[in-house]
Amino acid sequence: MAGPRSRAEVWRTRLIVLAVAAGLLVVLAAPAAYRLYQVERVVENPVEAVAVGRTPDPTVVVIFIRWTEPGWCFGEFVAVASETPTQVRLDRVVDRSGGGSVGCAGVGTVNNLASADLRLKTPLGQRSVMRGSDGYLLPIYSAGPPP
User: Fold this and answer.
1) Which residues have CB under 8 Å from 96's CB, separation 6+?
2) CA distances from 124 to 16, 53, 55, 85 (A)
3) What kind and span of H or E run contains 129?
4) Which of 49, 95, 99, 116 could bond 38 through an S-S bridge, CB–CB 3.0 to 4.6 Å?
5) Domain limits of the chain?
């Protein structure tokens, strides 16, 4: 039977337990901290919409953006709009460069255009689409990107 432990042994045991707990905390928290870093380092830059394309889903339109960079990623651009019975107003379109996109292969830029899908509350139908920044009515294409 072991005798009473010395104060040094008690403190050594406590220190070992504390070090193991701290190590586990770092190992478990690191992935969550990295994901938060990816999301928080997103930079939003306004971009200008130049046209709209219809899709087979009448509540989804493609917003085409003038883009002169060599490539872009799906989900990189985000469009926000407000709707009335006669018009869709593009309130803002932004390039969300930075975090959130892990392992993006990149999409080639054709005709200096990139795109963002915009889900509408109701089908586009005969409504016009206006760029909110200057009131410009965007051309609407039935199939494919603009020339």
Assistant:
1) 42, 43, 44, 75, 76, 77, 78
2) 65, 11, 10, 9
3) strand 128-131
4) 99
5) 1-40, 43-141
Section 90-116 average pLDDT: 73
Q: How far apart are CA 64 and CA 77, in angstroms?
A: 10
How would you class 145 by CB atoms within 10 Å of its CB: exposed for 0-12, middle for 13-18, buried for 19 or more? Answer: middle
pLDDT in tens, 105-115: 566 677 888 88
- Compute CA 53 distance to the chain's CA centroid, rounded to the nearest angstrom: 21
pTM score of the predicted model: 0.66
Distances (CA, A) of 21 to 15, 18, 26, 27, 32: 10, 5, 9, 10, 17
- Asked if residues 138 and 52 have their Cβ atoms less than 8 Å apart, the reply is yes
Helix, strand, coil percent values for the chain (each to nearest 5) = 25, 35, 40
